[in-house]
């Protein structure tokens, strides 16, 4: 990708009467009127008479045409005097030979590169120089390596470029070359318009979250928000979150007032039971009633009953018809199993 910022105004060059001339509206002008003609245009001005505007970073296309088969050389000089050679270049072996009455566009549709307007704002020019024979630009520009797509230009500014080109074309017959210049102006990018958001609440320590991003505390105006529609969440300790969707508009402040009223009632989790153990009572006497510390806790079924007791000593008693009452005290320190076999 080549960044373009093109050619400023008039130059001075002291030469003989037959030498190329410099004018306020061009860079280099043939003193004669050859039957060869060339035109150069930028894509926002097909007439060549206007001065269209391009923004920094915007793509630009440059076109040229000749009335006779010719070699066309394209240069641009930006508002700060930086010179770029657009054609010839080494982008896919791009040739600068242009057939008569055809239009060449750079970059052409389908090319895998673009010309992008650079950062230097102001009046720019792009120069087309057409010649019936190839020109030797070795003293003006060169490709430093085979990998360079564009040539490095030694001249800086409009005057140096004009002087260098005058030397190149001066030995040529005046009817064998001609030039043309196009203008355009580079301006800065339009700044992104933003909006603001004010969130007011009736409680302290509220937090504002916009589109999943925490903005900060409430009762504050947040600025530099891109226009758009966003989800909003406002949180406050002890209250249910407030959620909504709102639209931020450029150049204005969106107001959101949140009245918290519904308190979140939280039930404390029950304290974990400490030192509780499960004792599996095993007995062959189904139907026997089981008492722990004088409280009946259940009946033996299918040879067993599980009871829960705390750490320490507990009296366990079994009553069953036809059997002697069983009673014993156990010191419980962990969960386990107790087998009880009453006697008749």
Automatic annotation (TrEMBL):
Keywords of the record: Signal
Residues annotated as domain PEGA: 195-262, 278-335
Ranges for domain DUF4384: 53-134
InterPro entries given in the database record: Carb-bd-like_fold, DUF4384, PEGA
Keyword Signal belongs to the record: yes
Coiled-coil spans in chain: none
Pfam families in the cross-refs: DUF4384, PEGA
Leader sequence residues: 1-18
Segments crossing the lipid bilayer: none
PANTHER family assigned to the protein according to its UniProt record, in alphabetical order: S-LAYER-LIKE PROTEIN (PTHR36194)
Full protein name: PEGA domain-containing protein
